[in-house]
UniProtKB/TrEMBL annotation, chain A:
Family per similarity comment: Belongs to the iron-sulfur cluster assembly SufBD family.
Species this protein is from: Candidatus Collierbacteria bacterium CG10_big_fil_rev_8_21_14_0_10_43_36
Gene responsible for this protein: sufB
InterPro entries: Fe-S_cluster_assembly_SufBD (IPR055346), SUF_FeS_clus_asmbl_SufB (IPR010231), SUF_FeS_clus_asmbl_SufBD_core (IPR000825), SUF_FeS_clus_asmbl_SufBD_sf (IPR037284), SufBD_N (IPR045595)
Name by which UniProt lists this protein: Fe-S cluster assembly protein SufB
Residue ranges of the TM segments: none
Length: 470, 174
């Protein structure tokens, strides 16, 4: 089976130039490069209220002033002038099923992606035809008072709620990519869960009608009112085509008193994508936030889901898996900022690097003065599968209060000879045995992901491991 | 073929005044074994910074870094410890440990246990803890008639003991 990287290069060469030139009907395609005029145009096309336009313009100015980070992955090849900052969804339908590389089709087959989804994932269709599924879902949600819309619709229909919460967990000046997103955001989800409501089933980004798949600058805002409970899922483990090579999404979450939110992501963008994401939750008294983050694809991902533990006894968790194969750099981790007493956090990071890939854990635990009774535990384990690959760990633990406990541990290892021998001596082939061991290594995080995704992920690992023993 | 086992090379350092210590421990020859034990006794107000790097460049080396610190009276300590294992450095065995006791509310610490590993046939791990004196240990001593300040002194001495002692080199704070 040919390697995924070779095919995505082919795909990239064939399609990227084609991507945005065939307009049949009315649709706006931005010129390349970013200008104030474009920011205004985006806002006017969406018919946004004046206050949102003002936020975009302020953010654009900030973006111009700010510098790119000097740490992290190699961002030097991104040509910001060569990017289109606004593409209407229809324009992303760039090719036919016949153009999709065999390798990708095989992956879909092997990991069991339903027929209906394959075309969307491969970039052949930009909209997932989920009318039937979504229709009945919408009814049960509205009975509970749950709002689940695209961010554009959310702004249109609930401007007061958006105005109160937008840009307050991740201010536009937080980092250059957040400023960029705030200026040109489009798409993403708006979720509002009223007090005491338990949504029950996980809300999945793909169910929304009019979802702008492969949205470059998605903006998501989730508000979980007091005592509510919800689970949101983004992405999927099947390889996902994106016409855009730069993704800079922003996700802001409010977890109010006693609420519980889990946000699960499984990302497997094609290997031409730079995935630079800012995700942060503000967690109030006695509330719980859990980020489950699976990074399998992209050329470079820089993403550090964070929790601001602002209320007493708030709890935050990040469970993360990073898979770095040939030509990939996963620079991921977590940030926990303890601002109140008796707050707790847990970070479990499992990374695997193979075929020259580089997996980097970058994390921060900060406990300010006055956070007595707080505890944090960080466990970062890395599996390096061959001598070409690399693993790094850069944790920063800043503790300004003594009545706390911080523990951090990290181990780097490879597939143990004894483990392999144990399995092989029981009749399991070497490749299968390696796959079992890698899946076992990831298990503490994978078990928190809903079953269908977990199954896909495990099968994907199996595919990646094919031909790897030696 | 006879191979002479290198004698364990032990370095110790102590930083007891505000200042900086910057130590790079290169492991350049096969079978080298190096250990570093460091004590940070930050009881005067000020900034104390320790940077240690175990740099494994060739196969078959052993490195162990243990840094223990106590911080009081508003002192601020930063410990930046890095284990680097180069591409060809198979069979490296490296462990880095940093443990910091914050004795009062005014003091603070930044612990950065870092790793950069480019070979997979290695044993590499690290651990870091920051906290205060364990309540149970304190109770154990005070319940045997030792006054609290005395008990704390004993616990701190015991905590630091592993890192203090005779050795080849002692580096003091600048």
């Amino acid at each position: 089976m040919s390697k995924q990287t070779d095919n995505s290069k082919l795909l990239e060469d064939k399609l990227y130039p084609l991507g945005h030139t065939d307009d049949v009907e009315y649709s706006f395609t931005a010129e390349k490069g970013l200008t104030e005029g474009l920011v205004r145009k985006i806002s006017s096309l969406k018919e946004e209220p004046k206050w949102m336009l003002e936020i975009r313009l302020k953010a654009y100015k900030k973006y111009l002033e700010m510098k790119m980070p000097t740490w992290g992955g190699d961002l030097s090849s991104i040509d910001f002038d060569d990017i289109r900052y606004y593409i209407k969804p229809k324009n992303q339908e760039a090719k036919t099923w016949a153009d999709v590389p065999e390798a990708i089709k095989n992956t879909f087959e092997k990991i069991g992606v339903p027929e209906a989804e394959r075309e969307t994932l491969a970039g052949v269709k930009s909209q997932y035809d989920s009318e039937v599924v979504y229709g009945s879902l919408k009814k049960s949600l509205s009975e509970k008072g749950v709002i689940f819309l695209s961010m554009d619709e959310g702004l249109r229909e609930y401007p007061e709620i958006v105005k109160e919460h937008f840009g307050k967990v991740i201010p536009m000046g937080d980092n250059k990519m957040a400023a960029l997103n705030t200026a040109v955001w489009s798409g993403g989800s708006f979720v509002y869960v009223p007090k005491n409501v338990d949504v029950g089933l996980p809300l999945q980004a793909y169910f929304r009608i009019n979802t702008e798949r492969a949205g470059q600058f998605e903006r998501t805002l989730i508000i979980a009112e007091e005592d509510s409970k919800m689970h949101y899922i983004e992405g999927c483990s099947a390889p996902s085509f994106s016409s855009a090579s730069l993704h800079a999404a922003v996700v802001e979450i409010y977890v109010k008193k006693n609420a519980k939110v889990q946000y699960s992501t499984v990302q497997n963008w094609f290997k031409n994508v730079y995935n630079l994401v800012t995700k942060r939750a503000k967690v109030m008294e006695n509330a719980e936030m859990r980020w489950v983050d699976g990074n399998l694809g992209s050329h470079l991902t820089m993403k550090y889901p964070s929790c601001i533990l602002a209320g007493r006894k708030a709890h935050g968790e990040v469970l993360s898996i990073a898979w770095a194969g040939a030509g990939q750099h996963q620079d991921t981790g977590a940030k926990m900022i303890h601002l109140a007493p008796e707050t707790t956090s847990q970070i479990i990071s499992k990374s695997i690097s193979k075929n020259g890939g580089r997996a980097t854990y970058r994390g921060m635990v900060h406990m300010v003065p006055g956070t007595w009774g707080s505890r944090s535990k960080v466990v970062c384990d890395a599996l390096i599968l061959d001598e070409k690959s690399r693993s790094d760990t850069y944790p920063v633990n800043k503790i300004q209060e003594n009545e706390v406990v911080l523990e951090h541990e990290a181990t780097v290892s490879r597939i143990g000879e004894e483990q392999l021998l144990y399995l092989m001596s029981r009749g399991i082939k070497a490749e299968e045995a390696s796959t079992m061991i890698v899946n076992g290594f990831m298990e503490p995080v994978v078990k928190e992901i809903p079953l269908e995704y977990a199954v896909e992920m495990n099968r994907l690992v199996g595919l990646e491991m094919e031909g790897s023993v030696g | 073929m006879t191979q002479e086992k290198n004698k364990m090379n032990i370095k110790r350092f102590k930083l007891d005044k505000p200042g900086e210590i910057d130590l790079v421990i290169p492991l350049l020859a096969s079978l080298e074994e190096k250990e570093v034990f460091g004590v940070i006794s930050a009881v005067e107000p000020g900034d104390y910074k320790v940077r240690v790097v175990a740099d494994h460049k060739v196969p078959n080396t052993f490195g162990r870094i243990v840094i223990k610190g106590v911080v009081a009276n508003g002192a601020r300590v930063t410990v930046d410890g890095m284990v680097k294992i180069a591409k060809g450095a198979r069979k490296t065995d490296s462990f880095l440990e940093m443990r910091i006791l914050l004795l009062d509310k005014q003091s603070s610490a930044v612990a950065e246990p870092k790793l950069e590993i480019e070979n997979n046939e290695v044993k590499a791990s690290h651990a870091a803890t920051v906290g205060k004196i364990d309540e149970d240990q304190l109770f154990y001593l005070t319940s045997r008639g030792i006054d609290e300040p005395g008990a704390k002194k004993l616990i701190v001495a015991g905590f630091l003991k592993e890192a203090v002692g005779e050795g080849d080199t002692v580096t003091r704070g600048r």
